[in-house]
Design a protein that fits this description.
The protein contains eleven helices and eight strands. α1 crosses α11, α2 packs across α3 and α4 packs antiparallel against α7. It has a single domain, classed as Alpha/Beta hydrolase fold, catalytic domain (Rossmann fold). The chain is 49% helix and 17% strand. By secondary structure, it is α/β, with parallel strands linked by helices. It holds the Pfam family Abhydrolase_1. InterPro entries: AB_hydrolase (IPR050471), AB_hydrolase_1 (IPR000073), AB_hydrolase_fold (IPR029058). GO terms for molecular function: hydrolase activity. Keywords: Hydrolase.
């Protein structure tokens, strides 16, 4: 178990492999364990860094921590890369992690070589009916069993029942335990954050935006993630590429995702 103190917090992290640095930023649940198979596939060519975001899973909750702004999460990632002497790195963020990566690109471009955004969800950019549906799901879970049940319902929605049931029990328990942090601190900051088109147009780092192939259809359950990805790609003038599966391919199609990423990473590391 590796812990490091950065940005007035303590983060759990895992390092694998050798070669150019590659950082993965987790979304909802904030757990490094979601990237294990992807990391074990890519560590032959890259130094892969994964971590539990502050206050989640094996990263202890800071004292007197009462808010979790996206910029603070981005600062954590920047200081982690710097402290481990891994900057500049290619960073890949999924979902909430892609929102955090947006702030990282805007605030700390010096620690990055390039950025890959997988299906960021900017709440204010989504169709209102889908936003209402997600809020109803959360409210249902909170009424049935508080933050852990709300976390389970949300995980089942974004990942699918089959993927949820396949999670290792210890990983699943950690993720459900992180519901208190997400719904109590992170969700408000997540729903408030959205970069401006002016900010995005000024980004000079090489960027790629990714979306799950299963979400392309307008009738798909999670099509809102495709729409948010397309909005970001247009704002960055970046290519929009498709990855296997839906919203969390690191859990549903980890090795296929890793192999899809290889040529992209090779191009970004030139």
């Amino acid at each position: 178990m590796a812990l490091i103190s950065v940005n007035d917090t303590t983060l759990y992290y895992e390092l694998r492999g050798r070669g150019p640095a590659l950082l993965f930023i987790s979304g909802f649940t904030g757990d490094a364990g979601l990237w294990t198979e992807v990391a074990e596939t890519l560590f032959d060519a890259y130094t892969v860094l994964t971590y539990d975001r502050r206050g989640n899973s094996r990263s202890p909750r800071p004292k007197n921590w009462t808010a979790a702004p996206i910029d603070q999460q981005a600062d954590d990632a920047a200081e982690l890369l710097t402290a481990l002497d891994l900057a500049p790195a290619v960073a890949h963020g999924n979902s909430q992690g892609a929102v955090i990566l947006t702030s990282l690109v805007l605030r700390h471009p010096e620690v990055l070589r390039a950025a890959i955004f997988h299906e960021p969800l900017y709440a204010t950019a989504t169709p209102s009916e889908d936003d209402v549906r997600l809020r109803q799901l959360i409210e249902e879970g909170m009424a049935k069993g508080g933050p852990p049940m709300a976390a389970e319902l949300l995980l089942r929605w974004v990942a699918g029942d089959e993927v949820f049931e396949s999670f290792d029990l210890s990983l699943r328990n950690r993720m459900l335990g992180n519901g208190e942090v997400f719904f109590g601190l992170e969700l408000e900051a997540l729903t408030e954050y959205r970069p401006t088109l002016e900010e995005l147009s000024a980004v000079r780092l090489p960027c790629v935006v990714a979306t799950g192939v299963e979400n392309r259809d307008p009738e798909a359950l999670r099509h809102i993630f495709y729409e948010s990805s397309r909005w970001l790609a247009d704002g960055l003038r970046a290519p929009l590429i498709e990855t296997p599966g839906s919203h969390v391919p690191q859990a549903s199609h980890p090795r296929a995702l890793a192999e899809t990423m290889r040529p992209i990473l090779a191009n970004l590391n030139r």
